[in-house]
């Protein structure tokens, strides 16, 4: 008898390692995009707040585009058209760029809300003590406004982490892409998607727990 | 000395202050009374440069508040201000609230700033509340915290903008008591207030504002006993 070639094979402990590694990639691309995107977003939020109509005509529409167009379209467009202008980015870098801009667009509005939440009377009180504009921003607006919109920011961060799954369409082997590869081989979608889901949960849950404990501490 | 000359202030087309001339001497306590919208709070904001002015001048110890080259942040250290809303920094303890500005504005060391803060909080009767967050303080205590915060910058002048208006009636007394104490210590004060008792008992002079004009200014005995202006008499008859 000729030995049969096996196209499919069952789920092995090694595959778990493969998924774990992919989960780390998801974590890495998310951490990068969320941190850079948050810094940019806070800056844009400040421009939206201070820029008045000038910002409303320039920055705001651009941010609106990135907020409104589905992420998967942004990723595919950027990955395929960036080389035309001479930007040869690999899937990972493309993913980071788009996720960062996407995060920044979402955080900008959160940040503007934070600045608004502090209010003019509080800021005047700070300035009346002799604080400069920047000292007021750093020592009064940032901590007070930051706490006010922290839950909203956590929502954005968790959302972006889950949305990073879309970078799989560019071929970057993060958690979702890794699951698809394993499903193709093992034909066990239920098991593998459950494990992948558990990994996403394991990444998100500590963040939301930590955020909740921070909020509780601040509420004192 | 604070010298105000022909001060005009507009909010858009609204003419809020219509040519104010006023001198406040060192050590003087001036109360400013008048109906809501008469421009008395705006006057304070113009004195420490929180609101720009359209005409005239405000000088504090010879420095023009609204001149281009003036270091307004430095000048404001001379002008402590207490607001109607106390605006405590909610993320900081009472001690940190008071220590923040000495530390970052005056560049005091952390230990020094905390010492100043503790001293000022004791001064206003909050010596027991150093490590308490503002949310655990009553309105009256928060307003005294705001006074301590302003005093920690060692200002030459204190501006009070209706410091007791937002307080529950039973908390007004403790704040007025603190203001009275400052007056007795010789602090120069401009108090925009609705507390006629305070204006009468504590001030050296009382100014009555009516629709953006300083109608009348004089010793409390004159304003409360023998007002020259019809508007002053009418206002006082209504608030009493």
UniProtKB/TrEMBL annotation, chain A:
GO function terms (MF aspect)? L-cystine transmembrane transporter activity
Q: Which residues form the ABC transmembrane type-1 domain?
A: 23-211
**InterPro entries in the cross-refs:** AA_ABC_transptr_permease_3TM (IPR010065), ArtM/GltK/GlnP/TcyL/YhdX-like (IPR043429), MetI-like (IPR000515), MetI-like_sf (IPR035906)
Tell me a GO cellular component: ATP-binding cassette (ABC) transporter complex
Q: Which UniProt keywords apply?
A: Amino-acid transport, Cell membrane, Membrane, Transmembrane, Transmembrane helix, Transport
For this UniProt entry, which segments traverse the membrane? 27-49, 95-119, 190-207
Q: Where found?
A: Cell inner membrane; Cell membrane
Q: How does it sit in the membrane?
A: Multi-pass membrane protein
Protein family membership: Belongs to the binding-protein-dependent transport system permease family. HisMQ subfamily.
The name under which this protein is listed is Amino acid ABC transporter membrane protein 2, PAAT family
Q: What is the lineage of its organism?
A: Bacteria, Pseudomonadati, Pseudomonadota, Alphaproteobacteria, Rhodobacterales
TrEMBL record, chain B:
Q: Which UniProt keywords apply?
A: Amino-acid transport, ATP-binding, Cell membrane, Membrane, Nucleotide-binding, Transport
Q: How the protein sits in the membrane?
A: Peripheral membrane protein
Q: Which CDD domains match?
A: ABC_HisP_GlnQ
The cellular location(s) given in this protein's UniProt record come to: Cell membrane
InterPro entries recorded for this chain? AAA+_ATPase, ABC_ATPase_HisP-typ, ABC_transporter-like_ATP-bd, ABC_transporter-like_CS, MetN_ABC_transporter-like, P-loop_NTPase
The superkingdom of the source organism is Bacteria
| Residues annotated as domain ABC transporter | 2-236
Asked whether the keyword Transport is assigned, the reply is yes
Q: Report the main location listed first in the record.
A: membrane
Any GO molecular function: ATP binding
Recorded hits in Gene3D superfamilies, A to Z, give:
P-loop containing nucleotide triphosphate hydrolases
Which SMART domains does its entry note?
AAA
Q: Which Pfam family, giving just one, matches this sequence?
A: ABC_tran
Example of a GO cellular component annotation carried by this entry: plasma membrane
Q: Which family does it belong to?
A: Belongs to the ABC transporter superfamily.
> Any idea what this protein is called?
Amino acid ABC transporter ATP-binding protein, PAAT family
Organism encoding this protein: Shimia haliotis
